[in-house]
Amino acid sequence: MRVTSEVGNGTTVCLHLPRHHGEADGGDVALTLTEVARAEQGETALIVADEPSVRMRVTEVPEDLGYTAIEAADSVAGLKVMQSDVRIDLLVTDVGLPGGMNGRQMADAARVGRPRLKVLFITGYAENAILGHGHLEPGIEVLTKPFPMEALASRIKDLIVSG
What is the mean pLDDT of residues 34-39? Predict the structure, then answer.
């Protein structure tokens, strides 16, 4: 949501709602991890989050889906891994990170050398804060906190399937 106000001109309220690209889901939306597509052998996920408890919980989901997981506590450590020759197929990153860059900036820098990298942003901010006024490229998803682990698994599944 964005609100702007100008003296003498009034107030403008822009409300941005998520858009679904595809068919409407039928039945129960909640998924169990056993119903979710799995990573191929050897695929690796990098999880970047500054809060240790969040990082630990988020790391469990890609591991349960067959990914090897690597953890980083800030954007500097995350980018260092991304700039190495370690295989990384999926980046799951919080948007608000210490270390001089936010998660979006780190992902953009990582995708320079890894243009096909799949990215899942997790954020406590509105999705529009990630997008600005643009859109996300294919292979990039956003999940807004708080979220159930099934929603995280579902977003990762979407990224695996879109492969």
Answer: 58
